[in-house]
Specification:
The structure holds two protein chains of two kinds. Chain A is α/β, with parallel strands linked by helices. Chain A has five domains: 113 residues, Glutaredoxin (3-Layer(aba) Sandwich), CATH 3.40.30; 201 residues, NADH-ubiquinone oxidoreductase 51kDa subunit (Rossmann fold), CATH 3.40.50.11540; 86 residues, Ubiquitin-like (UB roll), CATH 3.10.20; 89 residues, Up-down Bundle (de novo design (two linked rop proteins)); 60 residues, 2-Layer Sandwich (Alpha-Beta Plaits), CATH 3.30.70.20. Chain A is 40% helix and 16% strand. A five-stranded mixed β-sheet of chain A has the order 2-1-3-4-5, with helices on one face. A five-stranded mixed β-sheet of chain A has the order 8-9-7-6-10. Chain A has a five-stranded mixed β-sheet with strand order 12-11-15-13-14. Chain B is α/β, with parallel strands linked by helices. Chain B contains 27 helices and 32 strands. A seven-stranded mixed β-sheet of chain B has the order 14-13-24-23-22-15-16. In chain B, strands 27-31-28-30-29-32 form a six-stranded mixed beta barrel. In chain B, helix 10 packs parallel to helix 17 and helix 19 crosses helix 21. The radius of gyration of chain B is 29 Å and the shape is globular. The mean pLDDT of chain B is 92. Classes of the chains: A alpha/beta, B alpha/beta.
C-alpha cells in the first residue's frame, strides 16, 4: 500500500472520528429529498439548533434511496445509536428537536439504524425493502457528506486506487475482466475488453469520458451516485486512467442535474487538492486530471458517439462508425467512454477484491446493480440488488398495496423507451439479469424500472413514447426521424379511434426499416411499438376494432357523463371549474353538454363520484372515423 | 487493389475505397441521396443498402462500407429492393411528393387534368425540378410507382401540420424552398467541405430538423457567396437557381469555359430553345473540377439580349448608324489602307483583348502583320508584361511550368501575394483553402498559408487559425513586405548557402528592408520562419501565388520580382515549378502567347495613347477590348481616342469605347463562341458556342478574318484569312505558335488537360533587386483609393453601365472602413463624393472592415470602370491614388 495513501487515510480517519464525538443530525440533500422539502428542513434545523444553543452538529449527507420517505433525517448520537425519522418537513423540526434528542420520537421515527431496539419501532435491517438489498455501491450514500472527501476516504475511499497503483496495467484490466463487469448503461459491453482496446493504442494523449448524460425517463441511478458519493466515480476513473494510459477525462454531465454538477465540481476540486487528481497522483507517477463538462440537453448525446460529437463542439449527433472511440474519439484521439455506475463498480472491485465482488450475482453478470423504481408504485426508490434478484420480490416490496390487489399491474418498462415494454405475467417471472430479458425482445437497460398499472392505456403510452423518440431524434437518418414520426401518427390515429386492420403491417414495416438506422436511437426505437403489438395486442385490437379504450384514457374514445344516482353536492363546483361551461343544470337535472366538453377532466377532479367516464360507444352509435360524431 | 464480386461480376477496386463509389463506377445502380463523392459518408438517407456476404446485422450501407478483398456484394436481391423501398417510403412521406410515386407521371402531359384527383400543389407539374430530380429518379428506379409502395398514404403527415418556413426567394440567384427538403444535408457539407464557406447549417432536431442559412434568416444575410455548389448536390427542388428555374429542363448541354477570370473553370451550359438556361461545373479542367463561382454560374444572362449589339454600326456625324457588314468592313479596310498610305504603318495600332479567344487574338496579330505595324497590345497589357518580364528575368522562362492542380493536392506551404483572391480568382482561392483545410478524401496533410494583402479577404481567415500568417501590407507596400521576408530568409545560413550553390547572387537582396511600417517585426519573423522551414524541407511542395492588380505597372513588376525572389530562395533552380502568376482577366496569357504584345520597336498601350494624344497615331482597331473601362487616367485616354482618324471597335455591347468609334462591328458573347482560351497556368481550354449569334452579330474571329481578306487584297501580302470555322484558326495556331505546337489538332479532342508551358527548367535563374516603395503621404485628410476586381459585378453589364451589373448591390458603392466612417460622419447608404485633381465622383457608401483604415475601395468594374477617372495614368509609382471623401451635402 502506498505511503501517500496511508497518510491521507490517517488524516481523514481523524476528521471522521471528530464528527462522531457529538450528536449528529444528518439531513439528506439530494434531488428527491429537496423536492420533498429537505432544504427547508435543513435551514429550519440549523437555525433552531443555533437558537436553542444545542450541542449538536447538523450535517448534510446524501440520500439512502428511500425516496418516498424523504426528508429522511437521521439522528446519530455520540453513543453510536442512530434512528431514522421520516417525512421531517420543516414544520416538524421543532417537534423532532423536542422529542428525538434525548429519547426517540415515536411519532416521526421510521426505523432504528444502530443501537438498542425501541419498543414498537422496526430496525432498518429488518425493513423488507432494505433487507433485500445488497448495498455495496450505495453503502456510503446517506451516511457521508458528499462534499467532504475526508468522509469518503475514512470509509475506505481511494484504497482501491492505492491498490490498483501497486498493480500493472495488465493486472488491473485482468481483474476488471475477471469480474465480468459490463457497461452499466444498458449496452453491457465488457469493460475490461474496452479498456484493453484503449491501452493498446499508441497515439497520445488518450482520453477517458464519463457518460453522465442519464436521460432515460424513469432512470435516476447515476444521479444518486453523483449526488451522494461522487468521489467513488472519480476514483474509478483514476483507476481506469492508470489501467489504460489515459491522461485526461471529460465528465459529461447533463444540465438537468444541477446538484450533481455542483457536487461533482466540488469533488473534483477536493480530489485535486489532495493530490488524487493532477500530476503524480499518490506519488505513483500517474498524472491524470478531469473536467466536468455540462451537456446542453439532448437525449442522443447520451449515445456514446453523440456525446463525443457534443464534446467536440459539433452538432450533437451520433457519429458514423467506424472509426470507434478507441481509435478516434474526442479531438480524434483514442478515447474510452464508460458509465457513472461502471466507474463506481471499478472502485468497488479494486477496494474489496474480486472474491468479494463476485460473491453475488449470476454466472454472466456478477456483482450488484442499482435500480431506480418509479411509476405506479407506492415506494419510489433507488435500490441496489444482486444480479439475478427476482423482480417479483422487488415489486412486492415497493408496492405492497397493489400486491394486495388494490389495482392491477399491467406492464413493466425497464430501461426506458428504447428497451421496450413487458406485460406483468412475463415481467414478474424474470430475475434482474440482462440475459433473462433478451429472449423476450427487450433490454434490461440502465436501471430504470417503471411500473405501469391498468389505469394507463397502452396506446396512449405509445403515443407518448413515440413522440419522445421522434422529438429526440437527431435528424440524421431518414429512417429514424421519418420512422418515429410515422409511429406517432399511427398511434395517435389509433388513439382517436381511426385504427385500421393493416396497422400491424405498418408497424412491422417500420420495425424493418428502422433497423437500418445509424445509432441505437433509431434502430431500437420501434422496440416499444413492436413489443406493444406483441404483448398488448388485445388492448390495441380493442382500440382498432371497437373504438374502445378500456383504461379510459384515450380522449376521443371516452365521454364524461353525470352519474344521476350519485350525490350532486359537488356539481355546482364542477360547473364552475369547467372551462367551457359544458356542465349544465336544466330542470334540476345535471348533464354534460357533449358538444362543449373538451374532456379536460376538471369536473371529475372536483366531483369524482358524480362524474363518470364512459366509453364513447356506450351511448352513441358507431360512426365512421372522420364523420361527425353525432347520431 | 482488391478483387470483389458485385452481383456476380468480378471487379477490381482500390482496397478501402467507399463501396458506393465503386458500385456506381461500375455502372450498377445504387440509390444514394445523401452521399457526395469524395467526401466522408454522412449516412443519413439510408437508401444505399446492399447485401454483403458475411456481414453482421443484415443489410449494410454501401456508403459506410469499404472495399475489401474477396468481398461479395449483391445489390439485386428482392430483400435489398424491398428494404430500399421501405426506407425510401419514409423519405417520400416528408416530401411534397406526388411526382414521386404516381404511375401516370410518365404519361401525363402539361395541361392534363390530374387523374389522381390530387390537390394541385402535390402534383408533379407544379415542381420546377420535375423530370430532373434525383429523388424522383430514385423513386422511378426503385419501382416505387410500379410496385405501388405508398404505405403512408392517408397518414396525417404531421410534418405538414407544422407551420412550414416560407421559401426564400429574396435574392437574384438562389431559391430555397425548405418544404421540398429531405434533410440529406448534402448542401451543408458542400458548403462546409467543398467550399469552406459554412453558410448552411442544420437547425432544430427530430422531425423539426431543418436546413438553415446563417442564423436562419434570408440567404443574402448569411455569408453565402452564391457559388451554387449546394444547388449541384441538392437531390430535390429545395435549392434551385432562381434565373430560368422553370425553363431549365434542358434540351442540350454544351461544354465550354467560363471567361470571368483566368482560372478558366470549365462549365456545362444547359440550353433550351437554343438559349442557355442553366450552368453547371464541368470537370474537364482538373483545377476547377467540380466547382465554379457565382460569375460562372449566373453571369451568362447578366444582360438582356436586346442590350447586346445585333447590328454593325458606322458613324454618320454624331451618331452611329446600322450598316451592312460588308459595307462596314469595306470602310474599315479602305480607311486603314488609306491611313497606311498617308501616315505609314506606324500610325496604326491594334488592341487585342484578354476577353477574346486565342483565335481572335491570333488574327489581331496576323492583321497587324499585314498592316505592318508593331503597335499591338491590349489595355492591361503593360501591367501584365511588366509582371511577365519580371518572372522571366527571375526564372528564365516565359510560360511558367507551375501547375495549379499541385496546390490542392500537394502544396504544404503557400505564399499568396494578392488582394482578396476570393473575389478576383474565386476558385483558385477555394483550392488554396482546400490545401489549408483538407476535407476531401483521400486525406492529405494540411498546408500553411501566408497571405500578403492590404485588404482583408476570406483567405486571411485561413492563415492564422491554421498556423499561417496574414501580413497586412499598406497598399503599395506589398513588394516591400515580400522583400523583408526574403531578406529574413536569406539570413538563414543554410538558405543562403543553397541559394549560392544554385548560382544565385544573394547580395541582390541586401538592399531589402528589415522592417515595414504597419507590420510587427515578430509577425514578419513568424512568416519568415514558416518559409525557412519550407526551404529546409526540399521534398515539400510549395506554392508562391501572385495576382497583380490590373492597374499599376510598377507595383506589378516589383511585387512579382519580390515574390519570385522568395520562390528562388526556397526552391532554387526548380522554383519556376512553384511560381504562379495569376493574371486578372480570362485570356491574358492567351493574348500574350498569340503575340498580342508590342512588336520590335512597337508601342505598348501607354505609348499608343501618348501617340494618339500627340496626333501621331491615326487609326486604332480594338478587338474586344475597352480602354475607357480598364485604363487609368481615363480623361487622357478619352482625349487620345477622340483624336484618332479611325477607331474601329469589335465588341458585343456598345461600350464607352465603342460609342466613340467610327465603325463598330458586332461581336457575340463568349458563350456564343467557338475557340480556345489559355488559363492562368496555361491550360488551353475550349470555348464552344452554346447559343446562336444574335441578329447580324458574328464572332470576332469571323469579322477579323473577313477584314483580313479585304486588307490583304488592298495591301498585298501572302497571308491567308479564309477561315470557315474557328477550329481552322486553332489548327493554324497549333502549327505556328510556340508552346501550342504540342497540341495535335483532332477537333479539340481531349483539350483542357494539356498546358502550353515550357518543358524543363533550363532557364537562367536570377534574384532581382526590388525598388523602394513609393508612398504619397496623406494630406488634408485624404484617403488612399484602392481598386480591384470584385466577385459579383458582371463585366458585360458593367461595361454598358447597367444598374443591375451587381444584382446583389453589394459592390456598387464605395467601401469605407467602418472606423473611418465614424470619424467622417458617414453612415451606410449615405451619398458621398470622391474627389481629386482629376475628377469628382458621387456614389453611395458602404461600411466594411475589409478595407484598411485610411483607404477606400471601389470596384474596378463599377459603372463601366468609372474609378479610372480618379486614377492617374501609369506613372511608374507604386503608391496608390489619393482622394478626398466627403458626405454629399
Amino acid at each position: 500500500m502506498l505511503k501517500a495513501y496511508e497518510e491521507l487515510r490517517a488524516k481523514s480517519d481523524e476528521v471522521w472520528k471528530n464528527t462522531q464525538a457529538r450528536t449528529v443530525i444528518r439531513v439528506p440533500i439530494a434531488t428527491c429529498s429537496i423536492a420533498a422539502g429537505a432544504r427547508e428542513t435543513l435551514e429550519a434545523l440549523e437555525s433552531a439548533v443555533k437558537e436553542r444553543g444545542l450541542d449538536v452538529d447538523v450535517q448534510t449527507v446524501g440520500e439512502r434511496g428511500l425516496c418516498w420517505l424523504e426528508p429522511l433525517v437521521e439522528i446519530v448520537k455520540a453513543d453510536g445509536s442512530a434512528v431514522l425519522y421520516e417525512h421531517v418537513t420543516s414544520d416538524k423540526v421543532e417537534q423532532l428537536l423536542d422529542e428525538a434528542l434525548d429519547d426517540v420520537s415515536a411519532d416521526l421515527a421510521f426505523a432504528v439504524v444502530e443501537g438498542t431496539d425501541v419498543e414498537g419501532l422496526q430496525r432498518l435491517d429488518d425493513f423488507d425493502l432494505w433487507a433485500l438489498q445488497e448495498r455495496r455501491l450505495l453503502l456510503r450514500c446517506g451516511i457521508i457528506d458528499p462534499d467532504n472527501i475526508d468522509h469518503y476516504i475514512a470509509h475506505g475511499g481511494y484504497s482501491g486506487l492505492a491498490q490498483a497503483l501497486d498493480q500493472s496495467q495488465e493486472e488491473v484490466i485482468q481483474t476488471v475482466s475477471d469480474s465480468t463487469l459490463r457497461g452499466r448503461s444498458g449496452s453491457a459491453f465488457p469493460t475490461g475488453t474496452k479498456w484493453e482496446f484503449l491501452r493498446g493504442k499508441e497515439r497520445e494523449p488518450k482520453y477517458l469520458i464519463c457518460n453522465a448524460d442519464e436521460g432515460d425517463p424513469g432512470a435516476f441511478v447515476n444521479r444518486i451516485l453523483m449526488e451522494c458519493d461522487p468521489q467513488s466515480v472519480i476514483e474509478g476513473m483514476v483507476i481506469a486512467a492508470h489501467a489504460t494510459g489515459a491522461t485526461y477525462a471529460f465528465f459529461y454531465l447533463r444540465e438537468e442535474y444541477p446538484l450533481a454538477i455542483e457536487r461533482m465540481e466540488k469533488a473534483v476540486e477536493q480530489a485535486r487538492e489532495r493530490g488524487l487528481l493532477g500530476d503524480n497522483i499518490l506519488e505513483s507517477g500517474l498524472s491524470f486530471d478531469m473536467k466536468i463538462w455540462v451537456g446542453a440537453g439532448s437525449y442522443v448525446c447520451g449515445e456514446e458517439s453523440g456525446l463525443l460529437a457534443s464534446l467536440d463542439d459539433e452538432r450533437g449527433m451520433p457519429r458514423i462508425r467506424p472509426p470507434f472511440p478507441a481509435d478516434s474519439g474526442v479531438f480524434e484521439q483514442p478515447t474510452n467512454v464508460n458509465n457513472v455506475e461502471t466507474y463506481s463498480d471499478v472502485t468497488l472491485i479494486m477496494e474489496k477484491g474480486l472474491e468479494f465482488y463476485n460473491s453475488v450475482g449470476t454466472e454472466a453478470n456478477k456483482g450488484t446493480k442499482i435500480f431506480s423504481l418509479s411509476g405506479h408504485i407506492q415506494r419510489v426508490c433507488v435500490v441496489e440488488v444482486a444480479f439475478g434478484y427476482p423482480l417479483r420480490d422487488l415489486y412486492h416490496a415497493v408496492d405492497p398495496a397493489t400486491y394486495q390487489e388494490r389495482r392491477k399491474l399491467k406492464a413493466l418498462q425497464a430501461g426506458a423507451a428504447l428497451a421496450g415494454i413487458l406485460p406483468t405475467h412475463i415481467a414478474l417471472k424474470l430475475p434482474l439479469d440482462p440475459e433473462a430479458f433478451k429472449p423476450h425482445g427487450v433490454l434490461m437497460g440502465g436501471g430504470g424500472l417503471v411500473f405501469i398499472d391498468d389505469t394507463a392505456c397502452i396506446v396512449d403510452l405509445n403515443v407518448m413514447f413515440s413522440w419522445f423518440l421522434e422529438d429526440e431524434s437527431c435528424g440524421r437518418c431518414t429512417t429514424c426521424h421519418g420512422g418515429t414520426q410515422r409511429m406517432s401518427e399511427i398511434f395517435r390515429r389509433i388513439g382517436r379511434g381511426g385504427g385500421k386492420s393493416n396497422d400491424y403491417d405498418k408497424m412491422e414495416l417500420l420495425g424493418q426499416a428502422l433497423q437500418y438506422s445509424n445509432c441505437i436511437h433509431g434502430s431500437a426505437s420501434p422496440t416499444i411499438m413492436l413489443r406493444s403489438a406483441e404483448y398488448f395486442r388485445e388492448e390495441i385490437d380493442q382500440h382498432i376494432n371497437e373504438q374502445r379504450c378500456a383504461a379510459k384514457v384515450c380522449r376521443d374514445l371516452i365521454r364524461y357523463e353525470i352519474d344521476s344516482d350519485s350525490d350532486s353536492d359537488k356539481l355546482p363546483e364542477a360547473a364552475a371549474i369547467c372551462p367551457t361551461e359544458a356542465v349544465v343544470q336544466e330542470d334540476e337535472k345535471w348533464s354534460i353538454d357533449q358538444s362543449k366538453c373538451i374532456k379536460c377532466n376538471a369536473c371529475k377532479d372536483v366531483a369524482p363520484d358524480a362524474v363518470r367516464i364512459v366509453d364513447a360507444f356506450d351511448v352513441l352509435p358507431l360512426t365512421p372515423v372522420g364523420a361527425s360524431a353525432t347520431a | 487493389m482488391a478483387k470483389l464480386t458485385i452481383d456476380g461480376r468480378e471487379i477490381e477496386a482500390p482496397d478501402g475505397a467507399p463501396l458506393v463509389e465503386v458500385i456506381k463506377e461500375n455502372g450498377i445502380y445504387v440509390p444514394n441521396l445523401c452521399y457526395i463523392d469524395g467526401l466522408p459518408p454522412y449516412a443519413g438517407c439510408r437508401t444505399c443498402l446492399v447485401e454483403i456476404e458475411g456481414a453482421r446485422g443484415g443489410l449494410q450501407l454501401s456508403c459506410t462500407s469499404t472495399v475489401r478483398d474477396e468481398m461479395v456484394v449483391r445489390t439485386d436481391t428482392a430483400e435489398v429492393k424491398q428494404a430500399r423501398q421501405y426506407v425510401l417510403s419514409l423519405i417520400d412521406a416528408n416530401h411534397s411528393d406526388r411526382c414521386l410515386t404516381c404511375h401516370r407521371r410518365v404519361k401525363c402531359m402539361p395541361g392534363d387534368v390530374c387523374l389522381r384527383d390530387d390537390v394541385v400543389t402535390h402534383r408533379c407539374l407544379t415542381c420546377s425540378k420535375n423530370y430532373r430530380c434525383e429523388l424522383q429518379t430514385t423513386n422511378d428506379l426503385l419501382d416505387m410507382g410500379v410496385d405501388n409502395v405508398e404505405p403512408w398514404e392517408g397518414e396525417d403527415r404531421t410534418y405538414y401540420q407544422w407551420e412550414q418556413p416560407e421559401p426564400d426567394r429574396a435574392n437574384p440567384f438562389l431559391e430555397f424552398d425548405p418544404q421540398m427538403c429531405i434533410i440529406c444535408t448534402r448542401c451543408v457539407r458542400a458548403c462546409d467541405d467543398l467550399r469552406h464557406t459554412g453558410a448552411i447549417t442544420l437547425a432544430g432536431r427530430g422531425f423539426s430538423t431543418r436546413i438553415a442559412f446563417g442564423a436562419g434568416g434570408p440567404i443574402d444575410e448569411s455569408n453565402c457567396d452564391f457559388c451554387g455548389s449546394c444547388i449541384d448536390v441538392c437531390p430535390t427542388a429545395t435549392l434551385m437557381e432562381k434565373p430560368n428555374k422553370w425553363l431549365a429542363r434542358t434540351e442540350d448541354w454544351v461544354s465550354t469555359t467560363c471567361t470571368s477570370c483566368s482560372v478558366g473553370c470549365t462549365i456545362s451550359v444547359g440550353t433550351r430553345g437554343g438559349k442557355p438556361v442553366i450552368v453547371k461545373p464541368d470537370t474537364i479542367n482538373p483545377f476547377s473540377d467540380d466547382q465554379i463561382c457565382v460569375r460562372g454560374r449566373f453571369h451568362y444572362d447578366a444582360i438582356k439580349p436586346k442590350e447586346r449589339l445585333s447590328k454593325h454600326l458606322v458613324r454618320e456625324g454624331d451618331t452611329l448608324q446600322p450598316s451592312p457588314l460588308d459595307a462596314a468592313l469595306d470602310i474599315v479596310a479602305d480607311r486603314l489602307a488609306g491611313i497606311r498610305e498617308q501616315h505609314g504603318a506606324a500610325s496604326i495600332a491594334f488592341l487585342g483583348s484578354p476577353f477574346a479567344t486565342n483565335e481572335e487574338n491570333y488574327l489581331v496579330r496576323k492583321l497587324a502583320g499585314v498592316v505592318g505595324t508593331p503597335n499591338i497590345d491590349f489595355t492591361v497589357g503593360p501591367v501584365n508584361q511588366a509582371a511577365a518580364h519580371a518572372a522571366q528575368a527571375a526564372f528564365g522562362v516565359d510560360r511558367l511550368p507551375a501547375d495549379l492542380t499541385d496546390i490542392p493536392t500537394k502544396a504544404k506551404t503557400i505564399l499568396v501575394v494578392a488582394d482578396d483572391l476570393e473575389e478576383t480568382h474565386n476558385v483558385a482561392a477555394l483550392r488554396i483553402k482546400d490545401a489549408i483545410d483538407p476535407r476531401k478524401l483521400p486525406a492529405r496533410e494540411p498546408a500553411r498559408l501566408i497571405v500578403i494583402s492590404s485588404r482583408r479577404g476570406e483567405l486571411c481567415d485561413f492563415a492564422e487559425p491554421y498556423g499561417g500568417v496574414w501580413l497586412q501590407a499598406e497598399a503599395g507596400q506589398e513588394a516591400a513586405v515580400v522583400s523583408a521576408l526574403a531578406k529574413r530568409i536569406v539570413g538563414d545560413e543554410n538558405v543562403a548557402a543553397s541559394a549560392k550553390s544554385a548560382g544565385l547572387d544573394v547580395d541582390a537582396l541586401a538592399a531589402g528592408p528589415d522592417t515595414v511600417t504597419g507590420i510587427e517585426n515578430s509577425t514578419l519573423d513568424n512568416a519568415a520562419a514558416i518559409l525557412s522551414e519550407a526551404a529546409a524541407d526540399a521534398g515539400q511542395t510549395i506554392a508562391v501565388v501572385v495576382a497583380p492588380k490590373s492597374v499599376g505597372v510598377a507595383l506589378a513588376a516589383e511585387t512579382t520580382k519580390a515574390a519570385a525572389n522568395v520562390a528562388l530562395l526556397l526552391r532554387g533552380a526548380s522554383a519556376a515549378s512553384s511560381f504562379y502568376l495569376l493574371p486578372t482577366e480570362a485570356n491574358i496569357n492567351g493574348a500574350r502567347d498569340m503575340g498580342v504584345v508590342p512588336g520590335e520597336g512597337g508601342l505598348n498601350f501607354i505609348g499608343i495613347v501618348e501617340a494618339a494624344s500627340a496626333g501621331d497615331m491615326k487609326a486604332l482597331v480594338v478587338a474586344g477590348d475597352n480602354p475607357l473601362m480598364f485604363a487609368p487616367g481615363r480623361a487622357k485616354v478619352e482625349e487620345a481616342l477622340g483624336r484618332l482618324d479611325l477607331l474601329v471597335v469589335i465588341d458585343q455591347v456598345l461600350t464607352d469605347t465603342a460609342k466613340m468609334a467610327h465603325v463598330v462591328l458586332a461581336d457575340v458573347p463568349a458563350i456564343s463562341k467557338d475557340g480556345t482560351i489559355t488559363s492562368a497556368d496555361r491550360r488551353v481550354l475550349r470555348l464552344k458556342a452554346a447559343q446562336a449569334a444574335q441578329g447580324e452579330a458574328q464572332p470576332a474571329w469571323a469579322t477579323l478574318s473577313q477584314l483580313g481578306q479585304r486588307l490583304t487584297s488592298r495591301l498585298g501580302g501572302g497571308e491567308s484569312f479564309s477561315y470557315e470555322e474557328a477550329s481552322e484558326i486553332t489548327e493554324e495556331i497549333t502549327k505556328s505558335v510556340p508552346g501550342y505546337d504540342r497540341f495535335h489538332f483532332h477537333g479539340y479532342l481531349g483539350w483542357g488537360k494539356g498546358r502550353a508551358v515550357e518543358d524543363g527548367l533550363s532557364g537562367t535563374i536570377a534574384l532581382q533587386p526590388v525598388g523602394e516603395p513609393a508612398s504619397t503621404p496623406p494630406s488634408n485628410g485624404d484617403v488612399a483609393l484602392l481598386t480591384g476586381r470584385t466577385l459579383f459585378t458582371s463585366l458585360e453589364a458593367a461595361s454598358i453601365h447597367s444598374p443591375e451589373a451587381d444584382k446583389l448591390h453589394r459592390e456598387d458603392a464605395v467601401l469605407v472602413n467602418q472606423y473611418d466612417a465614424v470619424e467622417l460622419g458617414i453612415s451606410a447608404g449615405d451619398g458621398v463624393v470622391l474627389k481629386n485633381g482629376s475628377a469628382e465622383l458621387s456614389l453611395k457608401a458602404a461600411l466594411t472592415n475589409t478595407v484598411p483604415r485610411g483607404s477606400v475601395f471601389l470596384s474596378s468594374y463599377y459603372d463601366g470602370g468609372v474609378v479610372n477617372t480618379l486614377l492617374p495614368s501609369e506613372n511608374g509609382s507604386t503608391a496608390p491614388a489619393r482622394v478626398t471623401i466627403a458626405k454629399q451635402s
